[in-house]
Design goal:
22 strands; nine-stranded mixed beta sheet; alpha/beta
Length: 538
């Protein structure tokens, strides 16, 4: 029998006749795990409603309860984490979480707990925040995120699958369910995200009964097959547009990709340089290295293949063979190459048991752009060709350390490895092709305090910057250069009123007008941060 655990404010089993519980625990704010006792089993509670919804669709479901929310519906982050760890360590296969956090300071701790639980085989079904903001854990890749059909068009048991959603929420589901109380009376519950998730949990429960060893990606595929909307032919459940599932990686730097400073947001076990004439040859060398040295995959969860800018694309046959090898070894793949074809990786015979990032997935996440989004935008123009991601990462970290929700975004997929949103190649966007996440979408999903937009400005013509100025309302321009050139003058000559902050790269060129001479130094990062705050407050 599959056991589903509801992590909530407790289940009072008599109110809706949800029956006996497989476990009935409470995690206190002090993180003590206790048996719950001496409570009113007829009392209404949020968790009791969630249990009633699951029982409505799967009457014989075996349900357990972990109470983390107090009577006002609040908990500390570590109570949620403790519940996830308990489920992981007690062989729980399915968890319903109609709760979460939108505080960016909770991101890393919750992410690690979610990934640990997923590694242990726990399938998490989690509700999005009712403001439909990016939610932890619902928006993570290792979770089945659910939100409600606010228009209430879906009937009981119906749902839509959201393919490659920017907010990470996989499913939009009916949340309007009729449930019956112990005395025979009943009611249709209010429409909210919290009550959309349990219905999906019930459907997942039934899938698990039929396939007890099913993986998360296979579960997502099965759920997509049961949705009211059709399954697109180019969609794969195991290809993701974010890489929040990476914890420890082996990195291959192909064709001098290491020249771009990469402050990785995950643990890098080791980096291996691959020199080659083109990307096709590079992929063959990566594949050959792994075939000869399979022990190098020990102790990691992901292989990152980081290509330098190249006019060539990777060899398809070598790439697919690499996917098959990694799938056999239980390792995931992150493929970082800004010169990608507009197609997904396709391979036959696989069971989609590993996670893959491949840049073409982001073409499916598009939206219209508004020039003025009502949110401060600081653009980093990197003329040095090496400091962009380093600067973005350090600035974002400094803003967050000081309590500001700063979201970084860049036009290189390599930014994903440093914590930035990937907006695809602006050359395609400015040329009229629809293949970019917009700043408007980022603003809507994250509701940040500031957006840090990274732009590789090296070897660009003046027309490029004119189109950028026409597309975005940029409040502050941070200009990184390593030699005296026309770059700062080009920015100064633009028709916008954006403030310009010059930054120089140490040992290359010291601009007398630049107070910041080494963005790698925390001292100068702090100076840059203070200048930005001062400018934004004026």
């Amino acid at each position: 029998m599959i056991n589903v655990i509801i992590v909530d404010d407790g289940i009072n089993g008599e109110l809706y006749h949800t029956g006996s519980l497989s476990c009935d625990l409470e995690i206190t704010p002090e993180l003590n795990i206790l048996e719950r006792s001496e409570y009113d089993r007829y009392l209404h509670s949020h968790g009791t409603v969630c249990a009633a919804i699951i029982k409505k669709y799967i009457p014989d479901a075996e349900i357990g309860s972990i109470k983390v929310l107090n009577d006002n519906g609040y908990a500390v982050r570590d109570q949620l984490i403790a519940a996830l760890l308990w489920c992981a360590d007690n062989a729980v296969r399915l968890v319903n979480l109609s709760l979460g956090t939108i505080d960016f300071r909770d991101y890393e701790a919750v992410r690690k707990a979610v990934n640990y639980a997923a590694q242990k085989g726990v399938i998490l079904v989690s509700a999005c925040n009712n403001k439909n903001r990016y939610t932890y854990p619902a928006s993570f890749s290792n979770v089945i995120g659910v939100k409600c059909d606010i228009e209430d068009n879906l009937k009981e048991g119906e749902y839509r699958y959201n393919y490659y959603p920017l907010d990470g929420i996989d499913i939009t589901a009916c949340a309007s369910h009729f449930i019956e109380k112990y005395d025979g009376s009943g009611k249709t519950i209010s429409v909210c995200n919290s009550f959309a998730a349990p219905m999906i949990t019930a459907i997942a429960y039934n899938i698990l009964r039929q396939s007890p060893s099913i993986s998360l990606e296979e579960m997502k595929y099965k759920l997509a097959e049961g949705a009211v909307n059709s399954l697109p032919g180019n969609w794969h459940a195991n290809i993701y547009q974010r890489i929040d599932w990476v914890d420890t990686a082996l990195v291959f730097n192909v064709t001098c990709a290491e020249k771009l400073k990469m402050p990785y947001r995950f643990t890098v076990k080791s980096q291996i340089g691959i020199e080659c004439a083109d990307s096709g040859e590079g992929m063959e060398k990566v594949l050959g290295y792994i075939k000869k040295n399979r022990d190098v995959l020990n102790g990691i969860d992901t292989v990152v293949v980081n290509f330098a800018n190249s006019a060539h694309t990777a060899n398809d046959a070598s790439l697919i063979e690499l996917v098959c090898i990694l799938e056999h070894m239980g390792k995931n793949l992150v493929f970082l190459d800004d010169h990608w074809p507009y197609q997904n990786i396709r391979h036959t015979g696989g069971r989609e048991r590993i996670k893959i990032f491949y840049p073409s997935v982001c073409k499916a996440v598009t939206g219209a752009e508004k020039k003025n989004i009502g949110m401060p935008v600081a653009a980093v123009y990197d003329f040095s060709g090496a400091e962009l991601l380093n600067c973005l990462s350090k600035l974002q970290s400094t803003f967050r350390k000081n309590g500001y929700n700063a979201i970084a975004a860049s036009y290189t997929c390599k930014g994903l490895a440093t914590g930035a949103e990937y907006m695809s190649d602006i050359d395609h966007v400015l040329g009229g092709e629809s293949g970019s996440i917009s700043l408007e979408q980022i603003n809507r999903v994250y509701s940040p305090d500031i957006i840090l937009l990274g732009i590789d400005a090296s070897n660009k013509e003046p027309d490029y910057f004119e189109e950028l100025e026409a597309r975005y309302e940029i409040d502050i321009k941070i200009i990184i250069s390593n030699e005296k050139s026309l770059c700062i003058q080009v920015m100064a000559d633009s028709e916008t009123e954006s403030e310009i902050i010059p930054v120089t790269v140490r040992d290359k060129y010291k601009n007398d007008a630049a107070e910041i001479v080494d963005i790698s130094d925390e001292f100068y990062t702090e100076i840059l941060y203070r200048q930005l705050i001062q400018s934004l407050q004026q």
